[in-house]
Design a protein that fits this description.
Elements (H helix, E strand, L loop, with lengths): L5 H9 L6 E5 L6 H15 L7 E5 L3 H5 L5 H7 L5 H11 L6 E6 L7 H8 L5 E6 L18 E5 L5 H5 L6 H11 L3 H4 L4 H24 L4 H13 L7 H11 L6 H13 L3 E8 L4 E11 L2 H7 L7 H15 L3 E12 L5 E14 L2 E8 L5 H12 L6 E6 L6 E2 L5 E4 H6 L7
Parallel strand pairs: 1-4, 1-5, 2-3, 3-4, 6-8, 10-11, 11-13
Antiparallel strand pairs: 6-7, 8-9, 9-10, 12-13
Helix pairs in contact: 1-2, 8-14, 10-14, 12-13
Length: 431
């Protein structure tokens, strides 16, 4: 079964012939290679591009490597990279005229000096470059700097809920429950049995994610690294910082890990696109607060796999899903803080900080969003609306709830929408 990724396909189409190296990044197994080598390749053919003007090469393919007199097994055994001279000579033999050629290169980090080779190709006016990679520098957030400002990143996420529903056989209510449990990694989604889904997610951690981080960063204490990931998994969407985590390790795990090491490990998780951090933002003071932060998983299924599916809380998982959806739609997302001064029960004036789950910015647009799995009574509604009412600007204020309620505004102008409509209708905020 094929899953359409039209949102990302359009991003590649829009970037054709822009004079830059198109770099598709994202957590491993989110669909980068399929996007480039199947969906985008098919688009080029549909546009009338001749097959011999679309050059595909996978550096982890034994068959492709034989074309340049390289041996995959030998490369792995000798722990070396592909000879760039052989690759360049091969590409040169395929370019026979001045028409545009499209280079679709997979796992390009397996070639020695790949950055130099690709930048050199930019000097040729008839080459358009699209590349993916799945470890080392291509799983780093600063991949674009490797190309000295000549890279154009297309950040890819696992399946959105809308993409997930395009192949899910049930209704959207059962669909969201499964999506929040098993996530949107295409390989997992296409598994039919629950046992196969859980085993696939666990295997991805065992065989890919943790191994890549350890190998790339030469991590010596695998136990602390995995324990930290488990701890963050258990508190997804909660404010935390390195000092607090260090104290937990010292008291519970009797580990001597330092705050500096914890910060370093958290950066490794972010670099591999497993986690994203949301910083706190003082809405009234218009200033960022360095710590604590909230951490969200790029895929809810990966988070649940880390806790062995024992801590499934719809409240936190919906928040994680909303965060990913907002990031996928192109928003920068922060945690909002609203300072207030109020009287306590004794009449004394006290300072408090109210929290807004998401402050979303894109260009001149801004939205304030509260995530609430359920609003069963008026007390809960007051709790959710109170921080929004304390914000004194005119940007739209929204509550997204798991309750089956139609979209509506209250007397304060706060919009309430249900999570299903939000996830399946990107334009709902402007409706």
């Amino acid at each position: 079964m094929e899953i359409k990724r039209d949102y990302y396909l359009q991003k590649l189409i829009d970037r054709k012939h822009n004079g830059q190296i198109k770099v598709i990044t994202g957590v491993r197994r989110c669909g980068k290679s399929f996007l480039m080598n199947t969906l985008f390749y098919r688009h080029l053919l549909d546009c009338g591009i001749a097959e011999d003007h679309i050059i595909q090469f996978a550096f982890d393919s034994a068959e492709d490597l034989l074309k340049i007199d390289e041996d995959l097994i030998e490369i792995q055994e000798q722990d070396r990279k592909v000879n760039p001279r052989k690759f360049v000579n091969y590409i040169s033999s395929l370019i026979r005229d001045q028409e545009i050629y499209y280079l679709l290169l997979d796992e390009v980090q397996m070639m020695e000096s790949f950055e130099t080779v690709l930048i050199g190709y930019l000097r040729r006016k008839n080459l358009d470059l699209f590349v993916t990679g799945s470890n080392a520098k291509f799983l780093s957030r600063d991949v674009i700097t490797e190309f000295a400002g000549r890279g154009d990143e297309v950040r890819m996420y696992p399946l959105s809920f809308s993409e997930f529903m395009s192949v899910y056989k049930g209704d959207r209510y059962m669909g969201l429950s499964e999506y929040m449990l098993y996530g949107g990694i295409p390989l997992v989604v296409l598994r039919e049995k629950a046992a196969d889904k859980t085993e696939t997610l666990s295997a991805l951690f065992r065989e890919i994610y943790i191994r890549d981080i350890i190998q790339r960063h030469h991590v010596r204490n695998k136990g602390d690294l995995e324990d930290l990931l488990n701890t963050v998994s258990s508190s997804v969407g909660s404010l935390t910082n390195a000092e607090k985590l260090k104290n937990t390790f010292h008291s519970v795990k009797k580990s001597k890990i330092t705050s500096a090491t914890i910060l370093k490990y958290l950066e490794y998780f972010e670099d591999s696109f497993l986690l994203e951090a949301a910083s706190r933002y003082d809405i009234k003071g218009k200033a960022y607060i360095n710590t604590p932060k909230k951490y969200y998983f790029s895929d809810p299924g990966l988070r649940n796999a880390r806790v062995n599916f024992r801590q499934y809380e719809p409240t936190h998982m919906m928040e994680n899903v909303l965060y990913n959806e907002l990031r996928m739609r192109g928003y920068s997302v922060d945690v909002g803080i609203v300072p207030v001064v109020e009287k306590d029960s004794t009449g004394k004036m006290v300072r408090k900080q109210l929290e807004v789950d998401f402050v979303c910015n894109m260009g001149s647009s801004r939205y304030y969003i509260q995530s609430a799995w359920s609003i069963p009574d008026e007390d809960k509604r007051i709790q959710e609306t109170r921080p929004l009412q304390k914000i004194d600007d005119s940007f739209k204020k929204i509550i997204i709830t798991g309750d089956l309620t139609p979209a509506h505004y209250d007397e304060c102008g706060i919009l309430t929408v249900n999570v299903y409509d939000f996830l399946l209708n990107p334009g709902i905020f402007s409706d």
